[in-house]
Specification:
This protein is α+β, with helices and mostly antiparallel strands. It has six helices and eight strands, in the order ββααβββαβαβαβα. The longest helix is centred in the middle third of the chain and has 15 residues. This is Acyl-CoA N-acyltransferase.
Length: 233
Amino acid sequence: MATGQFYYEQKRLENDLISLEPFDQTIHITKFFNQTKYHPDLLKYVDFPQTETEEQFTKEVYAPLHDAPGECLYAIIDKTKPQTSSTEPENQNAYAGTIALTNTDKGNAATEIGIMIFKDFQRTHVGTNAVGLLLQYTLDPALDGGLGLRRVEWKTHFENVASRNAALRMGFEFEGILRWHRAFSLGVPVEALEKRNGTSGELRGRHTAYFSIVWEEWDEKRPKVVALMQKKY
């Protein structure tokens, strides 16, 4: 079940190692919810809504994404794992994480990639190939089957060194850090800000590291991304 309101076609994407399947609530949401519940480190740098049940998660997290035209969610399937059909629930052992096009701006031909790889699939071919497939789809020209977008962003908490390194490795250019970019609910309140403002419960602030790949550099970067996708782990 593809994201119904997405600005562009949500194609199924694949190579020899992985496939990106449109996220299907009936197949993928249980494992996704359980992964975030039992592996809280996945959310260390993500200001994710706190939900206690799968039903609450579906209503408060998944449903708004499904209905937003700027959001496009994929399940990452590791094709190197035994499977009969990537769309059948029994193949949860091959479901390796999620990747999304988010904050998509059709008028400015720009989007952002967000990715979460489950614990057992980290430091494998999965993340590199998932990002690579989406870069090809978003930045390749329409004549080559892509969307021909002008800009693809990667944004992350400035303390998330692994994510920052991944962005650089995949060819994204570092643009800078937006200080106090947003309030961040995780962690202890900011006492200095409380004292200054005479308030209580001031949330931490997320400083956000910005990266991007833009259209005029993609032809040069593309072969390097493809080479990374073919690398043996």
